[in-house]
Amino acid sequence: MKLLMKRFALLCLAALLLLPLGCEKKDPEPVDEIVIDDPLLKGAEPAPDNARVFYEIFTGSFSDSDGDGTGDLRGIINRMDYLNDGDPDSGKSLGIEGIWLTPIFASPSYHKYDVTDYYKVDPRFGTQEDLDELIALCHERGVKLILDLVINHTSRSNEWFTKFTAAHRNEDPTDPFYDFYSYYTKGETAPKGRTFSALSGTNVYYECNFSGDMPELNFDSPAVREELLNVARYYLDRGIDGFRFDAAKYVYFGDHDASVAFWVEYLDTLRKEYPGMYTVAEVWDGDGITDRYYPASNCFNFTTSQAEGLFSTTAKMGDVNNLTKYVASYLASIEGKNPDAMFVPFIANHDNDRAAGYLPVGSGYMQMAANLYILGPGSPFIYYGEELGMRGSRGSANTDANRRLAMIWGDEDTVKNPTGSTYPAASQIQKGAAEQKLDQNSLYTYYKKLIMIRKANPEIARGTYTPVHIDGSKVGGFTSTYEGKTVLVLHNTTTSTQTVDVSQFGDFTELRAFIGVEDASLSGTTLTLGAQTSVVLG
Known about the structure:
The protein is of the alpha/beta class.
């Protein structure tokens, strides 16, 4: 951040020197926001592939356009200049390259993970026309837009379940909805390890592993599979770029082989029709399970996420070499299962406590964790408000609503916390986006510069990843080669300045960028790397 401060001071001095002699000094014009104006970070090309920085938006908590307290699609449209203003060299917007919207389909809940109608935007979020406008705006600015597609289960209020219920009450096995949901009949032995609930007026019990209000679809039914293909086609035809698949390992509860086989068939069918489709699956498990799904889709990496994940533990003065060794091993594993496999890292999302709660911004841990996962391979996902240091946790209240609190804009936005939230306002950050945009030392400005560094050095995300090791030091990193060019990324997670002879890693003569709590400099082959700071060398 010192580099930003020095440049800002020089700009101010230059402005003073330009004042005409003999003229009375006028009050300065109000500053709209801090602009990062670094020639080394300009000229980045739009992302040519899916190795881009995504931003997860919990739709109902992001931005409210109509004053009803609920975030909506129009609110996101209104905030696109904050996310991506369409000019990668402006240094003004956050610069994200993709957006993941949590479910927007018609649903009775605040979270929308229990869909009543897949072909309808929930009225509280807006209209289909709003969605079409958002798609067009995203594409105009080079941003991919993906939807959270929840197909493991639906709402009990879904018309499909209503017809399933009617078919069983009428005892009509010829009804096309008779086998639409997973069930067993009274007198049969209930499948072990799964949860079922009695369907009133019938002799069947329907599967509902998440909640009695969320019946599970029957993936052995060809009609179900075809209908779910049609749901995906409907949105892909409208211009949606792909999907995040919720609860992917549960389509056949407890049977990973069957679940993987479904996803391979389902996604192969869609990719033949939509070859550029982006997909990422939620397989919340250890790598041994998650890796099994890679023949079908990229998956979020949970080993590196959350409070005990490798990003957080490494950021807290941990050994970077342990992290880079893991990432290299993981990449080799998933690429062995799918040559197009990609690392999809994150720190936290809507199902986790917010990262700033266990990575305090004032300690530099939050900034270091951001360096570790954004200045790395693949497609990192930022959770909305992470760039502000927003807080939120289940705590004793035991509700995920506390992890999905209203975005802190700090202006006239009327978005409110979701139903059931109990997180104390006194524990939340006080400086919102409006104020942080004016602060050169804010976490928002930090994230903005961090994303610009990544985009200005495409080798980081797309190159061949090779860990580098410094004996007896926690400083570590990797080289990455892409289209004949190689960069060296090094991280110092310690609280003291470290000196590194970079000639041991190759011919690196240019300090392309650095970011962190302190400064960095390169003299010949000697790198002086400040505490809690990362560098990119070329």
